[in-house]
Amino acid sequence: MTNITAVDEPSGPRPSKGFNPKRIVIYGIIIVAAMYYLLPLYVMITTSLKGLPEIRVGNIFAPPLEIITIEPWVKAWTSACTGLTCEGLAPGFWNSVKITVPSTIISVLVAAVSGYALVNWRFKGSEFFFTCLLLGSFIPYQVMLYPMVMITAQLKIFGTLWAVILVHTVFGMPILVLLFRNYFASLPQELFKAARVDGAGFWRIFIQIMVPMSLPIFAVAIILQVTGIWNDFLFGVVFAGTQNYPMTVQLNNIVNSTQGVREYNVNMAATILTAAVPLLVYFVSGKWFVRGIAAGAVKG
Q: Which domain CATH number covers 100?
């Protein structure tokens, strides 16, 4: 009996050690790109921790040289003026939560079921329906703004949080349905056919087979919706009404206020507080986002 001792040796050039011009260029580009995005964040954080006398010196890149203060953060959250009221960003934060949570849940669930039906349960006119959704993703929001104002007014919800929720749900559907349809199309059809042979129906296949296999694309959809809805300004300022302004609209009112002394430290603190939720979402679920994109979110 012959013993096989030969082992396949790796082929191809070995990684070079020491000076490598290509590697230097790559790392140089990465460092420049990182500095381009991190430098404004550094300025915002350091400015928000300074007092106004130190800010007036004019060196925005210098770290806080005096006592670090969190008073601008407290004022931005509790007592900064956002128009006629001086209640800070706290009311706007809870308005944004009330808008983002139901809008994300409804749009993601409806888009998931729609994408699943378009792939596995084709019906007459399904391709035309998908084409309309695809075209809808390329229509600018501003074109549909006035019709949506009329619709929400007829439904008697204009100026309420429900109007903003409805608008975000409707405008989030095209891209989400496209993502889910492409993802479900990339899954093995044998699983669906085997479940049909076993007698499983529409909802059983979706809940017990498709959903457990689709967690990455659900993460992609949730991240897209949460960041898009939370960062939105246009729909909030048009549909919400003055009592229901989301956090982004209140941030605009704080920064663009023309009364009193311009408090740059409060403005910077308010900006960071407003951006904290999308940043947290990316940090927590960023790997799921990359996994969902790699697993078929852009396949067709």
A: 1.10.3720.10
273: helix, strand or coil? helix
Mean pLDDT of 142-150: 87
pLDDT in tens, 152-207: 999 999 989 999 999 999 888 888 988 898 888 888 888 888 888 888 888 888 88
Token pair of 57 as six digits: 């010196």
Q: pTM above 0.85? A: no
If you compute the radius of gyration of the chain from its CA atoms, what whole number of angstroms results? 26
User: 282 near 273, Cβ under 8 Å?
Assistant: no
Residues 6+ apart with CB under 8 A from 200: 208, 209
Give a yes or no: residue 232 inside a domain. Answer: yes
Q: 141 and 33: one domain? A: no
Rounded Cα–Cα distance for residues 104 and 229 (Å)? 8
Supply the range of the domain harboring residue 36. 21-69
User: What is the Cβ-side half-sphere exposure of residue 12, based on CA atoms within 13 angstroms?
Assistant: 3
Residue 107's alpha-carbon distances to 9, 44, 280, in angstroms, are 52, 34, 21
**What span, in angstroms and rounded, lies between the C-alpha atoms of 160 and 142?**
20
The residue to which tokens 């009592």 are assigned:
243
* Residue 33: both structure tokens together: 């790109």
